[in-house]
Amino acid sequence: MELTSTAGRPVTERTADMWSQAVLRSIGTMREHLGDDLSLRTLAQAAWLSPFHFHRVFHRLTDSTPARFLAAWRIAEAKRLLAYSDDSVTDVCMHVGYASLGTFTSQFTRVVGVPPGRFRRLVQAYADVPFHDIVERLGAALAPPEHPEVTVSVDGGPGDGALAVIGLFDGAIPQRRPAGCAVVRTPGTAGLVIPPDTACQPLAMCFERSVTVREAVAATDLDRCYVAAAPGPILLDDATSPVTVELPLRRRRPTDPPILLALPLLMAVAGADLVDTSLAAADC
C-alpha cells in the first residue's frame, strides 16, 4: 500500500518508516498494557506524535482506528489465554482490561462467534488437529452461489496449494460472522454474493499446513499466517456489474489487526458433526 500525505502526495521512504515505527511503538504499548485504561493521548505519546496526527497516521497504516485496534487486541489476547492457560474466564476478563464479566462475555461472543467458555472447550477438543483439515471440511460444506456477484481471486501464501478462507466483513478486522464465506485452494478463485445495501470488505487468511487449531486461534505466529485485504469495502446496487477482487496473500505484519473470527464458528458452519454434543452447551 502506497502511503500518501494529507495532500494526497506519496510520502518519502523516510517518512513512511517514521510512521511505521510510531505505530509499532503504540501497538507495543497496547499489548504490554492491555489491562490498563489507554487513552488516545497515552498512545500518541508512545508514538511520539500529537493525538490528532497519531490518529490519522495509525488509521492509514492499519486501516483501523486506535480504539478499534486496541479492542481487537484485547479480545485476541483473551483468545490466547483461553487457549493456552488455565486462568478462569473472570481472570482473563480482568487481565485484558474489562471491569465487567458480562460486558466481556457479550463482546467476546459478538466478535468471536461463541462465548468464552465454549470457545475454550472447543479449542481443547481440537487443539492438535491441523487447521488445514478443519478448513477443508468447511470448504466441503459450503455450496458455491448460483449467481455470484463478486469473484475473489486469491494467490500467494505458503505456495503449496494451501486452503485460504475468504470472508466478506464489515471492516478491515476479521471479526463477527461474515456476510459471505468461501474456501479456495491457492491460487484460485471463489464466487460470493453480497447482501443488498451492505458494504463488505473482502478479507482472506491462510495458514501453513503445520499449524494446529490451538496455534491458529491464538494467531501469534506471524511467519506461518498469511492475510490479504481488499483496498476498501464493496457496495453493490442494481446497476452494478459483477466485480472481481484480487487478494494477494502475504505474511501477517505487526501492524495488521488480529484475526478474531473463531475457529469454532467455522466448525459450526462446516457441520455439527465436527462438534461433540457434549460441548454444545454455551456458558461464559
UniProtKB/TrEMBL annotation:
All copies of domain HTH araC/xylS-type, residue ranges: 24-122
Gene source species: Couchioplanes caeruleus subsp. caeruleus
Molecular function per GO: DNA-binding transcription factor activity; sequence-specific DNA binding
Entry-linked Gene3D superfamilies: Homeodomain-like
Classification via Pfam families: HTH_18
Top-level taxon: Bacteria
Name this polypeptide is given: HTH araC/xylS-type domain-containing protein
Alphabetic keyword roster: DNA-binding, Transcription, Transcription regulation
Keyword field contains Oxidoreductase: no
InterPro entries linked: AraC_XylS_family_regulators, Homeodomain-like_sf, HTH_AraC, HTH_AraC-typ_CS
Keyword rRNA-binding in annotation: no
Biological classification of the source: Bacteria, Bacillati, Actinomycetota, Actinomycetes, Micromonosporales
